[in-house]
Amino acid sequence: MKIGFIGLGIMGKPMSKNLLKAGHTVVVCDVNRGAVEEVVAAGAQSVATPRDIAAQVELVITMLPNSPEVRQVVLGANGIWEGAQAGLIVADMSSIAPLASREVAAKLAEKGVEMLDAPVSGGQPKAIDGTLSVMVGGKQAVFDRCLPVFKAMAASVVRVGDIGAGNVAKLANQVVVALNIAAVSEALVLAAKAGVEPELVFQAIRGGLAGSTVMEAKAPLMLDRKFNPGFRINLHIKDLTNALETGHQFGAPLPLTAAVMEIMQALKIDDMGDCDHGALVRYFEKQAKIELQRAPAR
Ligand code: NAD
């Protein structure tokens, strides 16, 4: 298939390269020239604007930071909407507000253009090896047409409902991850403060009900003091902002999400916005005046 790809960042670059590897023709565009050159070197074609892409492909994928960038690239000057013909499909794989997905889709529908919201989880390593999880909102028939394309980038692709449902699922994912990291942080700092080796507590509880994928991924990094991203606190703040707004719009209070959001805001003020979200532990460490470390060798 001839596919457009807009947004060649940490995620979009490897995702577009996996489409090339799967044999698709890929036409790219990004405001970052260096990123464009790298994907062109891997076999893509490039054009100047999203409008140029929309005029020549069957499917345009966007992988942009947040709702304002998606609105700009789809509906703004020289955007996808200007170049689109009826029958084009737009699959937005960015993590954005569900209501923004619905608004953009409604505008595209005026021209007979279909849209899916298809955010991902898995981060850069899974983007590179093509094993992302994709959660998709949109019509079943449009999903069926795009499924082989998603499968070139993902190990799991699930349609969760109509347009906007993909981003609702992604927000649910981000709430669970944020609260889980906070719980692991709070618990390990409690152990350390009470004079018990946090590493041994991790070993003792990881196989029981308290164990989780988050605990497996983040506890070792906390103990090793590795806070390079990964997934930046600033990006998680963006997702929790969208979660809280969505909760308010639909009447679902999110008190625990609000608490973790404030912890992330405190870390941002302490210049840790670009650290991995595992650095949440540093908030609890600061309050308890202690730092986690590995158990000494025996
Ligand atoms: P990124 O900031 O690395 O990349 C975004 C890209 O969009 C950049 O290359 C930027 O130049 C480009 N861009 C911005 N505005 C543009 C415009 N107007 N026209 C063309 N290009 C434009 O972000 P990322 O980490 O690749 O994340 C992309 C999305 O995926 C975000 O919504 C993020 O929340 C989500 N996500 C990220 C991760 C992760 O681990 N990084 C994991 C899952 C989901």
What does this 3D model show about the protein?
The protein starts with a strand and ends in a 10-residue tail after the last helix. With 298 residues, it is of the alpha/beta class. Helix 1 (12-21) packs parallel to helix 7 and helix 9 crosses helix 10. The protein is elongated, with a radius of gyration of 21 Å. The longest helix is centred in the middle third of the chain and has 29 residues, at 165-193. It has two domains: 2-163, NAD(P)-binding Rossmann-like Domain (Rossmann fold); 168-288, N-(1-d-carboxylethyl)-l-norvaline Dehydrogenase, domain 2 (Orthogonal Bundle). The protein has a six-stranded parallel sheet, sandwiched between helices. It has 14 helices and nine strands. Bound molecules: nicotinamide-adenine-dinucleotide. Nicotinamide-adenine-dinucleotide is lined by residues 6-12, 30-32, 35, 63-66, 69, 72-73, 94-95, 120-121, 123-124, 231, 235.
